[in-house]
Amino acid sequence: MKLETARGFNGKCLDGVNVLSLPPREDDDRERLLLVHPLGGSVCVRELFLEGGGKSAKNTNTTTRKERDGEEEETIPPMFFCDDSDVRDQTRVTCATTSPCGKFIAAGSRVNVATNVAVVRLWEVAGEGRRRIKKQSESLVKLSLHKGEVTSLAFSPCSKFIASLGGASDNYQLVLWRLADGKAMCGRNTFGATTVAFVNRASINPSLVTAGADESGVVMWQFDSAKRSFSSEKCRLGQIRRDVVKVVVSENDDFAYLGTKTGDVLKVSLEGDRLFKRKSDYKVSGGVTSLALVKGTGRTLLLVGGGDGSVNVLDAQTLDEHHLKGSKGNGKVFANGRITSIVVRVSEEEEELLDEVVKSGAVVLTEEVNKQYHRRSPATVLKVPPSNATIKRRQRAARENADAIVTTHTVLVGTSKCDVELFHLTRDDNDIMYGTGKIVPKAEKPLSIVSAAAANTESNDGKVLICGSHDAPVNDIAFPRNFEGLFATCAGTEIRLWKTENCEELSRISASGVSSTCENVVFAPDGFSIISAWSDGNIRFYSPKSGTLLATIEDCHPAGVSTLEISRDGSTLISGGTDGAVRVWTLPDGGYTTVALKASMKEHRAKINSVNFSNDESIAASASDDGACILWDMSKCSRLRMLKCFNNAFVKSALFHPADDSILVTASSDRKIIFWDVQTGEPTREVEANETSEVTSLSLHSSDATNSGSKTLLLAISGGSADPVVKIFRDERKEEKEEEEKEEQADETVSLLAIGRAHSTRVNRVKFSRDGKRIVSCGQEGVFVWRI
C-alpha cells in the first residue's frame, strides 16, 4: 500500500523539529524546505512550501504539482526513516537533529529495557546538490554504545563529528563519534548532563559544552585527537544553583546561554576564567523548555520557549526583553502547549539585505547619535531639522509605498500538544523613524516576533499550523454515512474532523471540564451530530460544525462506555461497556432531544470491543474480551446465539458481510480471521492473518469485480505491538459455483493483497473509506491515510 498522508508529531521529544533548505523547483518559485520530526519509532521527512515570503505555508502532508505537459498530478507523500529492528526492539525516538551541511539526520532512541543498547541512527537525506530527497529505508550508520536511552544529540559545525548523551541508566555518558566510519572517539561520564552543544570553531579537536542537573554543572570539554581523550573544565557559576534544560553557544564562541527549569536564562563566559556573567530578570512561567539563537540581526538575540507555551525575544547582551514597541507584535506570542522545539531560519531576502549592509558599511544610528541630532554641526551653515508636519508627511508617503511588516526570520515551534506552528521575526519597514527624519537601514531595526497569520495582512485567522495531531493515542475512526471526503477521530478529550484526501484538519472538538477519555465515535445519519463514548460512563452528542455540546446521556455504563453503533434511520443506538453490558437506546425523532433506555443485556463477562448491526438491522453482534461473540435479536432484545471462539482469545471485532447477512466475520487476538454461518453459528473458514502479532481491528468493504457474477470482499486488519502493520486481504467468490466446490477452495480464495508499514506501535483502529479507495489507520503516533 502507498502511504498517502500521515498526521502525527512526537511533542514530548525535545528539539524534535528541524528544517532543511532545498532549492526551488524549475516550475515553482516558492521557497522549499524539508520538515524533519520524530514520529513514534521513526523519523518523518515532509516537503514544505512557503508562500508569500514565508507568510503562509502549504500543507506539508501531501504536496501536489502538475507536470508541464498537463499530465496527472504527482503526489509526494511523507517519508519515514526507520529500520525493521526498531519495531522488534520496541524503540522510541527521543531526540533528533540535522547536520549543518543539510545532508544527514540523526536520531537517538529509547528501549523498554534499561540494560539494552539504545542506538543512534544516521541517515543521508539529500542527494547530489540536494535537489532531490534520497529514499533510504535502512540507516546509513548505527552508533551503538549507550544503554537504555539517548537524551541529546549535536552535530559539529563541520559535520564530521556527532556527540551523544546517555540517560540515567547509562550514567549520563558523553560520547564523541566520527561520522566517516561511525567509530566512537571518546566517552566520559558527565554526572547528570542532559544537553550538549558544540562550539563553532572548525578544528580537528572539537570542543563541547554540556549542562544539566545542578550537580553536573556547566562543563567545557576539549577533545585531544592524539590521545583520544577529553579534558574538562567547569564554568564557575558562584552561588547560582540551577538545573539546565538547554544550552546554546554564541556565534563567536565567547558565551554560552543556559535555559533553566526556574524560568530564567544564564549567561556564562567560555573564554578566560569561564565566569558567570549575567542572569535574566525575565522569568518564564513553567521554566525554560527550549532556547534558540537568532543569527544575522546585527546583534545577538535569543528565542526563549517556556512551559506556559510562550515564545519571547531576549537581547543576548543584556538578557532583557527585546521587541519593537507599537508594532503589530508585542514581543511575546503563545503556542498551543509547552514549547519543546524552536527552529529559526533567516529568509533569503534578509540574507541578501544583510550582505549589502555589511558590504556598504552602513552607519548604525544609536540612541546617543539621535540625542545629538539637534546640536549644531561644526559646519558654518546651521542645519535646521524638519518640522513635525514635514516628518509626518514623509512617514505617510513611506507607509503608502512599503509594506508595514517585513519578515526577517521564519520560526517553527514544536509543542507538547503535538503541534508545529509557524511564527515570524519581523521589523517595521518605515524608512523614516518617527520624530527624527533619519533613515535607518532595515537590517539594524529592532525585531518583534508575531504569528505568521498576523504578519500576513491577507490572513487574520490566528497562527499558521504546519503539522498538528492528537496529543494522546487515537482510539477510533468514524466515517459519515451520507457524506464523502471527511472522517472523525477521537483521542484523549478531543474529537477532530479531517479531510480524507490530504488529512487536512478541519475542526477540533474539545470536552471542556472533562477528565475522562473518548473511546469511540460515530456520526449521526443526518450528519448534524457526532455521538461519542467516554470512559466516565457518559454518551455525549456534539455539533460537528460548532463543536458545542448538544446533549449528554449520563451513567450509561458505570465502568465506562467502550463502543457505540447507530442504526441507519437514527432511531436506535446500541452501546457496549467495559463491564460487559450491552444496552439499547431509542431516539424516536432521530435526534438527541428524547433518549430512552429500551433494554439492557448482560451476557458477556468482559469488556465489549465492538457492536454492529446487520444490513437489515434485525440482528446485532457484540464482540468481547471474554472470547465470545453474541448475536442479539433486536426485535426482542434477547440473545439469539453465542459464537464461542477457540483458545479463549479476545474477540476484537465482529462485522457482518456488507452484501450477505448470513456471514459474520470476526477478528481475534489469536491472529485469526474467522467466517461464521449466522444461521448455524458454526465457523466456515479460518484465515491466519498475522504470524507474530494479534489482530487489533477489522474493517470490511464489498465491491463488484470485473467479471460478471463475482463479488470481492476486502478485509483490512491491523496488528499489535509485536508487528504493527496494516494488511488487506481479498476474498473473491463466484455465485455460479456449487457449495461443495466453494468449501474446497475456501482457503484459496482469501489472498493477501497489500501490506502497509509505517506504525511503530500498536494500531488501535483501521477502517475503509466509504468509496473503498483509501484506508485510515490510527495509533499512538497519530493518523495515517493509505491509498489502495
From TrEMBL:
Can you tell which superkingdom this protein's organism belongs to? Answer: Eukaryota
Q: Does the keyword Protease apply?
A: no
Q: Which regions does the record annotate with the repeat WD?
A: 554-595, 601-642, 660-686
Under InterPro entries, the record lists:
Quino_amine_DH_bsu (IPR011044), Quinoprotein_ADH-like_sf (IPR011047), WD40/YVTN_repeat-like_dom_sf (IPR015943), WD40_repeat_CS (IPR019775), WD40_rpt (IPR001680), WD_repeat_EMAP (IPR050630)
Classification from the root reads:
Eukaryota, Viridiplantae, Chlorophyta, Mamiellophyceae, Mamiellales
Location of the protein in the cell: Cell projection, Cilium, Flagellum; Cytoplasm
Note the Pfam families from the entry: WD40 (PF00400)
Family listed: Belongs to the CFAP52 family.
Write the protein's name.
Cilia- and flagella-associated protein 52
From which organism does this entry originate?
A: Bathycoccus prasinos
One Gene Ontology cellular component annotation held by this UniProt entry: axoneme
Q: Which keywords accompany this UniProt record?
A: Cell projection, Cilium, Cytoplasm, Flagellum, Repeat, WD repeat
Cytoplasm as UniProt keyword: yes
Q: Which PROSITE patterns match?
A: WD_REPEATS_1, WD_REPEATS_2, WD_REPEATS_REGION
Q: Which PANTHER family match?
A: CILIA- AND FLAGELLA-ASSOCIATED PROTEIN 52, WD-40 REPEAT PROTEIN
